[in-house]
Design goal:
This protein is α/β, with parallel strands linked by helices. It has a single domain, classed as 2-Layer Sandwich (Nucleotidyltransferase, domain 5), CATH 3.30.420.10. 40% of the residues lie in helices and 17% in strands. The chain has a five-stranded mixed beta sheet with strand order 3-2-1-4-5, with helices on both faces. β2 and β3 form a beta hairpin. α6 crosses α8. The chain is globular, with a radius of gyration of 17 Å.
């Protein structure tokens, strides 16, 4: 589905194995120190395989979700009540990641939350990450902005429900594949 590196390189030989995990976090705000993770989504991509594994977990932040965040994400207190807390959810996510490189749209944001909240629980989150936003900026410099929704619209990608972790992961996967592997 993605790849076709031969289109980019002009070579017909077997394409290299490519494996990574696209992930996205939904949070209660912009500051890792003051805000909590409320949803984790991830897609494990292995080039040449049609059956990508996915991971999705709500995270109970231990306090009410601000109304503006619920309105933006569609995630309510009822949805996270009884879900795993941050330590358990992050452990399960890191188990899913294994030794793979991470890919995120605006990776500094997601990695900041991952490092801060993982570090609070003694989790090793020293994982290489690729920023799909940077790839999109290089591939399509003339767009008015490089928000995920703007790039997806430019590429005619169905984003599903924006600001939901798994849908944003799928959108990021398509954007990253087109900006990196398939060229413009």
């Amino acid at each position: 589905m993605f790849g076709l590196l031969s289109r980019v390189t002009g070579r017909k030989e077997r394409e290299p194995d490519i494996e990574f995990v696209v992930f996205d976090l939904e949070t209660t705000g912009l500051s890792p120190k003051r805000n909590a993770i409320i949803e984790i989504g991830a897609i494990h991509y292995t080039h040449g395989q049609d059956n990508h594994r996915s991971f999705q977990s709500f995270v109970d932040p231990g306090k009410p979700i601000p109304k503006k965040i619920s309105k933006l994400t569609g995630i309510t207190d009822d949805m996270v009540t009884g879900a795993d807390g941050p330590e358990v959810a992050l452990r399960e996510f890191l188990k899913f990641v294994g030794g793979c490189t991470l890919v995120a749209y605006n990776a500094s944001f997601d990695m900041g939350f991952l490092r801060h909240h993982g570090g609070k629980h003694g989790l090793d989150v020293d994982i290489p990450a690729i920023d799909a936003l940077r790839s999109a900026r290089r591939a399509w410099p003339d767009l008015p902005n490089h928000k995920l929704a703007t790039v997806a619209k430019h590429l005619d990608i169905d984003v599903g429900q924006s600001h939901r972790a798994l849908d944003d992961c799928l959108t990021t996967l398509h954007v990253y594949a087109q900006s990196t592997f398939m060229g413009k």
